[in-house]
Amino acid sequence: MASRAAMMQALLLAALAVGSARAQLHEKFYSESCPSVEAIVRKELVSALSTTPNLAAALLRMHFHDCFVRGCDGSVLLDSANKTAEKDAVPNQTLRGFGFVDRVKAAVEKACPDTVSCADVLAILARDSVWLTKGPFWEVPLGRRDGSVSISNETDQLPPPTANFTVLTQLFAAKNLDAKDLVVLSAGHTIGISHCFSFTDRLFNFTGKVNPTDIDPTLDTEYMAKLRGKCRSLNDNTTVVEMDPGSFKTFDLDYFTVVAKRRGLFHSDGALLTNDFTRAYVQRHAGGAFKEEFFADFAASMVKMGNADVLTGSQGEIRKKCSVPNH
Ligand code: HEM
Ligand SMILES: *[C@@H]1O[C@H](CO)[C@@H](O)[C@H](O)[C@H]1NC(C)=O
Ligand SMILES: *[C@@H]1O[C@H](CO)[C@@H](O)[C@H](O)[C@H]1NC(C)=O
Ligand SMILES: *[C@@H]1O[C@H](CO)[C@@H](O)[C@H](O)[C@H]1NC(C)=O
Ligand SMILES: *[C@@H]1O[C@H](CO)[C@@H](O)[C@H](O)[C@H]1NC(C)=O
Ligand SMILES: *[C@@H]1O[C@H](CO)[C@@H](O)[C@H](O)[C@H]1NC(C)=O
Ligand SMILES: CC(=O)N[C@H]1CO[C@H](CO)[C@@H](O)[C@@H]1O
């Protein structure tokens, strides 16, 4: 029979485990330990965007990829000597800005050594990237800790651009995100670019026949012709296109206008029209008349996504360099 002391200890450990699992992120987490962190991150980003404005989109996407694989724990930033990390997987081959994140972290380390996690730096960068491209501002809950594991094939938790509505909602539900979060966060595609190969299946090989008539019937035909003018073949892996043509550097509501016209770039964008709820949301926001409402929704969904499976308390570590675990 277990001794009373051992039982008490087991109970205590269980309580601690529950406590840490429930530990909350907090907007003022660094207010004592590193009050300048947000100012430092902002300064670095403003300076980088002045020469490389399209970095904003890359950083927003990077935070999304971080949160969807092992939670928002900075695992997307880790290098692996044998090329088996998340960043080595296909969906990450088009991520950009790793060197910049490392530089921002170095600046933060200089002011507050061993205090701010890479996962939090990335969350702040994503918020500032949206805000500095004229999108909403929100307070970012902080206090994430960094993981030390990054596994290439776990990126299968990321939604592929070919996904239909069923697959999208399943992958989002796995991160505690619902259909509203899906349609709201998809509007992140109002900024940034895509490589042709992320959607050329819709132009040349939608059902596996590999011929110019094998097209995605849900894509607007005029837009399809335009895209074919840019992406000349199925395997074009160098050409990039603007996801929200004409305003791809501005965080606005054009994404919904584009999707409503069946001009969403990915099959996954178009799939938002195949469900009553998400289609109604797209149609309500096409034209951009309810900007404040969408901005508030986007902020709320970003905070929700930023909570995905976070490490807190004594879990994980505060990485010194974002590309390598401390030990
Ligand atoms: C709903 C499922 C999603 C799918 C299937 C998807 C897929 C993709 C793909 C294929 C690209 C282009 C990559 C390339 O070829 O260069 C891309 C770019 C991008 N995605 Fe998503 N995405 C999704 C959700 C999100 C979310 C939730 C966000 C953020 C809130 C986001 C933000 C971005 C941004 C900003 C870019 C542009 C990146 C750049 O300019 O480098 N995406 N996405
Ligand atoms: C790659 O390296 C990691 C540690 O850095 C190790 O855990 C993993 O087993 C290695 N994978 C292969 C396929 O060698
Ligand atoms: C992922 O890769 C590891 C080895 O690196 C393997 O053990 C595991 O089965 C793989 N998982 C999937 C889902 O492919
Ligand atoms: C959605 O895609 C999945 C995976 O490709 C497929 O199994 C499923 O049948 C599709 N669902 C619909 C409604 O098309
Ligand atoms: C065409 O699509 C099919 C499945 O839809 C895929 O298996 C095949 O690899 C694609 N062909 C090329 C050349 O990409
Ligand atoms: C891009 O395509 C070229 C030619 O098809 C190929 O040699 C190259 O390896 C591809 N690059 C990537 C990153 O897939
Ligand atoms: C940014 C980055 O690290 N991209 C890598 C993605 O994975 C491929 C290999 O699959 C690498 O070649 C890229 O460097």
Characteristic terms for this protein:
globular; glycoprotein; binds 2-acetamido-2-deoxy-beta-D-glucopyranose; peroxidase; Haem_peroxidase; metal ion binding; mainly alpha; single chain; Peroxidase, domain 2
Low-confidence stretches: 11-22
User: Over all CA atoms, what is the radius of gyration?
Assistant: 21 Å
User: Helix and strand string, N-terminal first?
Assistant: HHHHHHHEHHEHHHH
Distance between the termini: 39 Å
CATH C-level category of the largest domain: Mainly Alpha
Main sheet: strand order: 1-2
Q: Do you know the CATH topology of the largest domain?
A: Peroxidase, domain 2
Q: Report the structural category.
A: mainly alpha
* Largest beta-sheet characterization: 2 strands, antiparallel
Strand content: under 5%
Please name the CATH architecture of the largest domain.
Answer: Orthogonal Bundle
Relative helix content? 40-55%
Distinct ligands: protoporphyrin IX containing FE, 2-acetamido-2-deoxy-beta-D-glucopyranose
